[in-house]
C-alpha cells in the first residue's frame, strides 16, 4: 500500500545514493544509486553462483542465454563474455553436463547451434532468486502508481544506456 509519508526505503535511498567518499559528485544522485545497485547486483550474482555450485563465468553465460532477445550460439556468447571460442566450448560442455543447457540445431541454418537453458535450470534459478525477487516486489508497495511508472521509465532508459555503451567497445579519446 502506498503511503503519503516517506517510507524507510525512501529515507534509506536518500542517504545511500550519495557518491562514496573520494568519488566526487559529478553525476546525479540517481546515477550513483544505479551504480550502487549494479555493485549489489554483482554481489547477488556471486551468491547465486555459489548457491547453484557454478563458477561466475558459467552463471554469466546462463544469464546471457536467459535474457537474449534471440537464441545465442557459442560464438556470440564467447564475444559477450570476452572469452575465446575454445574457452567457450569448455563453458558450454560444463553447463550441458550439469543439465543447465541444451545445444539445439538452428532450424533455419543447420550449421548453427543455439544454446538454450533447460527447464530444470530455469526452475533452480527461480527457486534460488525467489526470496530476493519477493523483497524487490515488496519495495514497490511503498510507491504510488505514478512513482512506479517513473521508476520503470528511468530503469528502461538506464538499461538502454547500458546496452548502447556495451555495443560500442571503442575507448573514448
UniProtKB/TrEMBL annotation:
<feature type="region of interest" description="Disordered">
    <location>
        <begin position="1"/>
        <end position="30"/>
    </location>
</feature>
<protein>
    <submittedName>
        <fullName>MarR family transcriptional regulator</fullName>
    </submittedName>
</protein>
<dbReference type="InterPro" id="IPR036390">
    <property type="entry name" value="WH_DNA-bd_sf"/>
</dbReference>
<dbReference type="GO" id="GO:0003700">
    <property type="term" value="F:DNA-binding transcription factor activity"/>
</dbReference>
<dbReference type="InterPro" id="IPR036388">
    <property type="entry name" value="WH-like_DNA-bd_sf"/>
</dbReference>
<feature type="coiled-coil region">
    <location>
        <begin position="115"/>
        <end position="142"/>
    </location>
</feature>
<feature type="compositionally biased region" description="Low complexity">
    <location>
        <begin position="14"/>
        <end position="28"/>
    </location>
</feature>
<dbReference type="InterPro" id="IPR000835">
    <property type="entry name" value="HTH_MarR-typ"/>
</dbReference>
<feature type="domain" description="HTH marR-type">
    <location>
        <begin position="30"/>
        <end position="160"/>
    </location>
</feature>
<dbReference type="Pfam" id="PF01047">
    <property type="entry name" value="MarR"/>
</dbReference>
<dbReference type="GO" id="GO:0006950">
    <property type="term" value="P:response to stress"/>
</dbReference>
<keyword id="KW-0175">Coiled coil</keyword>
<dbReference type="InterPro" id="IPR039422">
    <property type="entry name" value="MarR/SlyA-like"/>
</dbReference>
Amino acid at each position: 500500500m502506498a503511503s503519503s509519508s516517506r517510507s524507510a526505503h525512501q529515507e534509506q535511498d536518500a542517504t545511500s545514493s550519495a557518491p562514496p567518499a573520494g568519488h566526487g559528485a559529478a553525476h546525479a544522485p540517481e546515477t550513483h544509486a544505479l551504480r550502487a545497485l549494479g555493485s549489489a547486483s554483482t554481489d547477488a550474482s556471486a551468491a547465486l553462483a555459489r548457491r547453484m555450485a557454478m563458477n561466475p563465468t558459467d552463471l554469466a553465460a546462463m544469464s546471457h542465454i536467459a535474457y537474449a532477445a534471440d537464441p545465442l550460439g557459442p560464438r556470440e556468447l564467447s564475444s559477450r563474455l570476452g572469452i575465446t571460442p575454445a574457452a567457450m566450448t569448455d563453458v558450454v560442455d560444463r553447463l550441458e553436463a550439469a543439465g543447465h543447457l541444451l545445444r539445439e540445431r538452428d532450424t533455419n541454418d543447420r550449421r548453427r547451434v543455439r544454446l538454450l537453458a533447460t527447464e530444470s535450470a530455469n526452475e533452480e534459478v527461480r527457486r534460488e532468486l525467489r526470496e530476493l525477487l519477493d523483497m524487490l516486489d515488496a519495495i514497490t508497495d511503498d510507491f504510488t502508481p505514478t512513482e512506479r511508472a517513473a521508476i520503470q521509465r528511468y530503469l528502461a532508459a538506464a538499461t538502454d544506456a547500458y546496452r548502447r555503451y556495451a555495443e560500442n567497445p571503442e575507448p573514448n579519446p
